[in-house]
Amino acid sequence: MQSTTFRTVAELSRALAAREVSAVELAQDYLARIEAHKELNCFLDVRPEVTLEQAREADKRIAEGTATRLTGIPIAHKDIFVTRKWASTAASRMLEGYMSPFDAAVVKKLDAAGMVTLGKLNCDEFAMGSANENSASGKVFNPWNVNAVPGGSSGGSSACVAAGLAPIATATDTGGSIREPAAFCGVTGLNPTYGRPSRLGMIAFASSLDTAGLMAHTAEDIAWVLGDMVGYEPWDSTSENMPAEDFTRDLTKGLKIGVPRAWFADKLDAECSKAIEAVIDTYRSQGAEIVDIELPTADLGVSVYYVVACAEASSNLSRFDGVRYGYRAKDYDGIQDMIKKSRDEGFGDEPKRRILIGTYVLSHGYYDAYYIKAQKVRRLIAQEFDQAFQKVDAIISPVTTSTAYDFGSKKDPVSAYLGDLYTVPMSLAGLPCMSMPCGIHSNGRPIGVQITCARFNEAKMLGIAHAWQQATDWHLRHPEGF
Q1: Which one of 130, 153, 157, 342 is the catalytic residue?
Q2: Is 207 tagged catalytic?
């Protein structure tokens, strides 16, 4: 068969079934590419012997006729999912070298389908960041331009897929951490309905927001894999008990698409706005009705998100104290000093910043003023989306205010936080949403567009994205040199 580079999951599945390539040969091809492009710093842990063992087992299943359509397909996992055979560090010194005794639910389900793990992917420390500049193992580089951020926190996932180092990768989204890097690296990224993929085995940042998702070249590829990734987990109190579903259904006619026109104001780059308008025009030409909608409270999303997310981070990260597991300081005087030094040395600046913010808003005298008020506004944002989805089937909007920016150009944390303007409202409402490529800016960097649907409407959303990708080729554009 032709080179495996940039072949889709669907194409690779058909090639494996036709015995045009073996799972071992496929794994070897991708491992060689990972080794050849180490300069991107996408991977934190690669263990070829374990990967090839999985590939040999996949070939055995294919030969025996017990394979699924995903058996033998390579995948890489964000280092927020714990794994038994690869280190699970959340890209932090705090968990350096940690080997989990079990696999995350998402990893376990995809292993059961026969997918072959290539390794663990770099990310912002504890998934805290929008640029992948906060990893204890160094930043990830955007293959479209190494001076540009790949987006975060799932920058390793987006850069890996964009550079053809894996056909698909897992990722996580708390307030935009799948959609923003997907937009910055020109790939397709899905953040499902909160609770649909299990959080069991995900290293927690903000428990009411963290969601497992996928990045690939096409919406079709994501639809192929999503069905095997989701499912009820009784050990996960946030897991939704939903029947199995075919996510490969196509777009139906008579679609109504909502557009929040206020989001296309002066904050949005002009070329990005033009590219998204072209997406809207394409859907109109396909028979969709375009409806202007208003989401007035969504503008408060960034403020609400950083109160809620930081409060939950303060609680979740309190477990990393040097006592039970994880990093422990070498020199200390008593247990209090040990905890203090372990947390000071183990956490990077961004987790410390968010722990401090979260502890502050949860403290006596500020809990009602900040945290409770933020939760009330969160409910208003969710209600506005509910009202919008009574009128429309989907919402099209920007993902980010601009294309990928240069490393170091955000001079303070607040300016970086404001980059989440168009993504956090959906996360606060627990909605399924995704980003897909829709153009290339004059600066040579990809432009993304965001699609949002009502809860549990992933199949509809993937069908909408698939219709766009059938009519265009932006998802087939790849960075030079890869």
Answers
A1: 153
A2: no
